[in-house]
Amino acid sequence: MTRGFQETRRRAAARKIPVNTTANRQQNTAERWERRVHLGAHPVLYPIIRGLGGLRPVLRIPGLGVLVSEAGLVREVLMSHDAYVKNGPSGSGALWTPVVGPKALVNMDGEEHRLLRRRLGDLFTPRSVEGIVEPAAAALKARVHEELEVHGRVDLVDCVKELAGGVISRLLGVPEHAPGRLADRELFDLGSSISSLVRLGRPTLTARQVAKGRSAVDVLAGPVRAAYRESDPDTFPGRLRELGMSEDEAMGIISAFVMVGTETLVSFVPRLVALLADSGRLCELAADRSAVPAAVNEALRFTVPSPMMLRDAVVDGSLGGTKVLAGDRILLSTIHAAKSLGGFDPAQATPQQARQLWFGAGPHFCIGMPLAMAEINTTLELLLDLYAQRPWHIAARQVSRGVLIPGYRKLELAHA
């Protein structure tokens, strides 16, 4: 057993809450709902992955690949970009190339990827991110206030889908009142239709799936190409042109952001809110916002919005004492690596090897992380402000079933 594996078990034991307390009962409720969310998405695969991850930190699974379940080893693979690549024949990057083209950042490796990432870096400064999120956040605030005031309840999942759609519209460079402009929810559904093509057991897309993905990208392409050709630096496509991207490169990059970020955001935000409500932490956070960052980071650790990452080994080597061969498909179980550290507890610091692992590590660390965090924090601050004025509770919820990214299908909030 590796030292990292032993440390994981020690950390998990340290997170246990004393029995027969109100906090323990609330914690059990929160964790029970999270388990339902995972089982709703993957009723067979989730228990298997968690069970296999508990056996050994690295395990070869015939016909599927090499499963890596310990945080330190997951990070080692992500950092070893010369030995493990994202754009191999069975890696996640290769899935997207037929849909968005060869230069979409998410499907690139090596020096070409590094240079493109460096050029894109300034697009995700705090000021740039604020300009992308602010209009969508204002629409979110208006809708939540109106529905709680008029109808007494609001479906947070549907609201976050509109928020994500509003951010997509800004990335596409769509003028707010443009003729024929797709509604924010329609834009989300379009992005979701692309990302939903991916399955863990699917190393490649079929011709029909590629055609479906390209059809959705073609709808996105119209406003992107128009904004690109107008060279307006206030639009995201216009800024990509200023950076020297070709029109096709800009289209690929924006399509990649749309399909990678939408599902994970809509999965995480309602789960974050449910976790805080179920565990009895809303009142504390509404009164003391200094505790919000730790609560959000711990919720990211415990829910793991990106439960699995894929890489291809390109050289022979060894991981945790297990031999790895060039050509092996590497399954990085971030879901086990993070959850095995124990229950939801914002007071416990995440060990170094697991920090922000859900956003990746190394050269492929999520470049859109500041954008995702802005959307998360905006939504949570709004809900905490509302809670401080008049407490709300979860009135109804349904988990999503048969989806790639676990989440809630509905999460209705209502005033008491």
UniProtKB/TrEMBL annotation:
Keywords of this entry: Heme, Iron, Metal-binding, Monooxygenase, Oxidoreductase
Pfam families cross-referenced by the UniProt entry: p450
Keyword NAD: no
UniProt keyword Transmembrane helix, yes or no: no
InterPro entries for this protein: Cyt_P450 (IPR001128), Cyt_P450_B (IPR002397), Cyt_P450_CS (IPR017972), Cyt_P450_sf (IPR036396)
Similarity comment text for this entry: Belongs to the cytochrome P450 family.
Protein's name in the database: Cytochrome P450
Biological classification of the source: Bacteria, Bacillati, Actinomycetota, Actinomycetes, Micrococcales
